[in-house]
Design a protein that fits this description.
The chain is an alpha+beta fold. The chain has 10 helices and 7 strands.
Length: 258
């Protein structure tokens, strides 16, 4: 397994030394890249690249792929610690990866969408009235029970952000689903499922305490189909406050990328 990965990584690295995309302006090859994307990438990023479990790739701004070379390397080598797998040969040929890069560049917007709202006022709502920072990080501040939002503005569309705020059950980020476990001794722990496999369960509770159990120690493991984030921010916040909050979220991470 290790030898195979080494060979794949070397193959990807050798090809990625070619810093310019040979298919960047070839419409026919870009269309082939679109078909390849739909086979390998759409389950996570959506059939049009607008995001699902994975980030929206139509925004055109990504710190891991600001040029074709970096984007090639991300696709070829994956991103450790995430659901993004390596697609280096033999999974995909180097030419196929370059075609996917060309397709992604063709659908990417070069400038962020203009949103109504005041991001400075939205930042105050995030840390204040909205209490978003109790569960989410933004930069060096915030909680860990919810997804890190430090760069969410360059990986999610405004429409996705709005839906996540007002209807959090519609899209639950992988690794942040709710779970309640009961041990054989009767102890009950509820929180975010950090990891669940055939042998163990790790749960982070509301106090950010991490609990780890062997399956043999548990009486039951009940996964929640709902997000732990409370719904109804469109009612708790005024229309202006909601617009301000979304404006702030949409800008998180954009300045660094630009």
């Amino acid at each position: 397994m290790g030898a195979r990965w080494t060979l794949c990584f070397l193959a990807a690295s050798l090809v990625s030394a070619q810093t310019s995309n040979p298919f960047a302006t070839d419409a026919r090859e870009i269309d082939v890249g679109r078909a390849t994307f739909r086979i390998y990438c759409s389950p996570c990023h959506g059939i049009h690249g607008q995001g699902n479990r994975g980030p929206d790739l139509t925004l055109g701004i990504d710190s891991l792929g600001r040029n074709d070379q970096e984007l090639y390397d991300v696709i070829a080598n994956g991103i450790p610690g995430t659901e993004m797998p390596a697609s280096a040969p033999p999974r995909m040929t180097s030419d196929s990866i370059w075609r996917v890069v060309a397709y992604l560049r063709s659908i990417g917007q070069q400038t962020p969408a203009s949103l109504p709202g005041d991001p400075q006022a939205g930042e105050k709502i995030f840390w204040g009235k909205g209490q978003c920072g109790a569960c989410h990080r933004a930069g060096s501040r915030g909680g860990r029970t919810g997804p890190d939002l430090s760069v969410v503005g360059r990986s999610r569309t405004a429409a996705y952000l709005r839906e996540s705020v007002i209807s959090p059950d519609s899209q639950i980020t992988a690794g942040y689903g709710g779970v309640t476990i009961v041990t054989r001794g009767g102890e009950k722990v509820s929180g975010v499922a950090r990891n669940i496999d055939n042998f163990s369960v790790q749960v982070m509770d509301a106090g950010e305490n991490l609990h780890s159990f062997l399956r043999s120690e548990l009486q039951s493991v009940e996964k929640e189909s709902r997000s732990l984030m409370p719904p109804g921010y469109d009612k708790a916040l005024s229309p202006k406050e909601l617009a301000d909050l979304l404006s702030y979220l949409a800008r998180l991470g954009r300045e660094e990328a630009q």
